[in-house]
Amino acid sequence: MAQADTLNLQHTIWELDQTYVMPTYRRMPTLFVRGSGARLYDEQGNAYLDFLAGIAVCALGHCHPRMVRRLQQQAETLIHVSGLLLTEPVARLAQKLCTISGMERAFFCNSGAEACETAIKIIRKHANAVKQTPDYEILVLEGSFHGRTMGAVSATAQPKYQEPFKPLLPGFRVVPRNDIEALEAAFSERTAGILLEPIQGEIGIHPLSEEYLRTARALCDRYNALMAVDEVQSGVGRTGKWFAYQHTDVLPDLVAVAKGLGGGIPIGACLARGHAATLLQPGEHGSTFGGNPLATATALEVLQTIEDEDLLTHAARIGDSLRTQLAHLQSDGAPIAEIRGKGLMLGVQLTQPIARTVAQKAFEKRLIINAVGDWVLRLVPPLIITEADVQEFVQILHSVFKEVSV
What we know:
The chain contains 13 helices and 17 strands. The chain is of the alpha/beta class. A hairpin with a 4-residue loop joins strand 2 and strand 3.
């Protein structure tokens, strides 16, 4: 396609997008047409190194051959049936997820928000049917993010996400992260459960301490409350373990998972153990597209590929390398105050409020990264990135820092 034609196509698609799509995203005007591995390509054939991966979604990178083949095979066989009917992929995926998580049963849905909604509903039923505490509370953490649905937004302790949609769903109590004394003070017989992210993503990659997680587990046991972990962003190998809580000896009652699970195909799951695994009975919860054969077959292939290619070990190793390279930039004078996170879920805290400018300049140099506010860069690349990709990333980031830092 001639350059003039590609520019005309880009302009046409941009105008259509701006006219007909609700303005919920500040979208870049560059038109992307394909992806391969850790790179995206625009309509002119320019390659962009993708260190965002659809916001921690494309665990295997873009269009991984095994994932594409499995999608094609399943699409030719069976795409969707009602949840009332038995299919093999959903049963196999449930078994696999329970095996790698330490949970006992799975509920399938389409997104992380739905997975968190399921966890919230299970906690609420636990309060009503088991604890028989009508004035119960669910504890959530300051700075949390659990999704965009009303229940998930109500559990998201960030006013900017909540203010436009008040009144919120009642029954949530906010506690500060990593403050053990405050956590102990918040628990009571009214506490039905706690919903937390082992690594808070949307607020700028803030890990919870192992002591904090252990305390939450012990308090849940003491007060007959359910511990739910939101692994939507941190799960499926991103931190070098299947799930971030597995860096500790803590075993939750509920696990919300999505994003990387489908490798780009929409799927979410709420995993549960103990009595929480059977609290929801027929007719009490469901999802029309949840557990459809296309999504579950693809997700199973994603998990199997992560195992076969030893991407847990790789994510831990390449994440350490990435952190080391960032530390070198920091010691050389780059405006980096702190590097947080685990594996390939890293937050780069800057010394100046230039994160958005850095992300924009990086994009102009064909590197895709994400600014979380003005102070933090979020790095969540595909698990398949190489050492060469890390070196390219560091070179571009270094050049951007030289341009924009004061």
